[in-house]
Amino acid sequence: MSIINYLILLAIYFVTPALVLWLARKYAIIGKIGPIMVLYALGMILGNIPFATEQMAVLQDFLPNALIPLAIPMMLFGCNFAKGEARLQLKLVFSGFISVALAVALGYILFGHKVDEGAEMGGIISGMYTGGTLNAAALQTIFTIKSESFILVNSYDIIISFSYFVFLFSFGIRLFRRLYGQQTVLTTETAEAESQDASNHNPYSILLTKDGIKQLLKTVGVTLIVAAASGGVAIVMPEGWFMVVFILLLTTLGVVCSFIKPIKALTVSYDIGIYLIYIFSMVIASMADFSNLNIAGGINQFAFMTVAVFVSLALHALLCRVMKVDADAMIISSVAFINSPPFVPMAAAAMRNKDIIVTGLSVGVVGYAIGNHFGVLMCYLLGLL
Who's near 198: CB < 8 A, 6+ residues apart? Predict the structure, then answer.
């Protein structure tokens, strides 16, 4: 019976995006909402249905770790890269860390000081919203926070992150592009073309042709080589550095492949990568277990984290505007900090701007590398307030 449950869940995860994409082409309202938001909502519903919970937990642990290493290089193979990328990334890293530091400090003054071990919690939140859950877990070990408290933080983070995505993907992207007086300085024509392309025809129809099948096999083959090479190097790194090195190598090798003409000519690679991101979105959303939430009992912790996320977004937007960073780079870097690099391709898909992926991943890798140190520093500074 358990094998059947696995097969049913896998079918749901892998087939539902195709159904949503078909509905998005058929009904304009679903197209405007966007496949990712629809899949996020469906995933949250699926995760709270009492069905095959044991098998679902296994897939929730396995699938994201399998899908992202495949999706990242696939989405990079056809990218075009702008000059001056390093300078842009420096601006984004500076803005991101300053924004999170100020937002966490404000959240601590308003709510965090009322939370048990508030300064330590502030340090964990700082690492979480500049690196990711891995950094938060490392900081929990450093500060010896109770596992129950850490689980509660992760539960709140799911709800807050979902609200963050709802804001960005529903109207935040359009709002920031309009406020900045530009859609994006990197790929305006690309984004517009992809927007029209997505609404007019099915990009996956080519996979039913002989040429499409050949491209699919070549894309998967090259991607597996890139992922294996990245993982092989990363696994021999010192403890705690695997994810930093892995993401960095996936990005680097993906970029290198984009300059190899036969690989760049694999036009299906981006759309295949996007489909994996659709599956990833649904799997991640299905992790939201509302039965474990106790918002009323931990209102100050919830408010502390909410301030950290949304105030840091506002400050990051303001600083990027002052430094003349374009809207798309600001948004993708915010996602890299708040949600970690694996969510970057998902945001790029929502923005229909594949050329922004490297910017987000590069910034996110810095967050992974520095997040633990930043969290310890923030804990010490919050203890002085």
Answer: 31, 352
- For residue 160, tell me if it sits in a domain: yes
CA distance 319 to 130: 16
Residue 141 within a domain:
yes
User: How many structural domains compose the chain?
Assistant: 1
Amino acid (1-letter code) at residue 347: A
Measured distance CA(362)–CA(383) in Å, rounded: 31
Dist. CA 164–CA 231, nearest whole Å: 31
Domain that holds residue 310: 2-54+68-200+211-383
| CB-CB neighbours of 222 under 10 Å | 21
In the chain, how long is the greatest CA-to-CA distance? 66
- Is the residue at 177 inside a domain? yes
Q: Which of 336, 351, 360 is nearest to 173 (CA)?
A: 351
Structural domain includes residue 206: no
In DSSP notation, 307-325 reads HHHHHHHHHHHHHHHHTT-
pLDDT for res 198: 44
pTM beyond 0.70, yes or no? yes
Q: Are 103 and 306 in contact (CB under 8 A)?
A: no
pLDDT in tens, 101-150: 999 999 999 998 888 888 999 999 999 999 877 788 778 878 888 766 77
Tokens encoding 82: 């702008």
Q: Distance between CA 52 and CA 40 in Å, rounded?
A: 19
* Amino acid (one-letter) located at 234: A
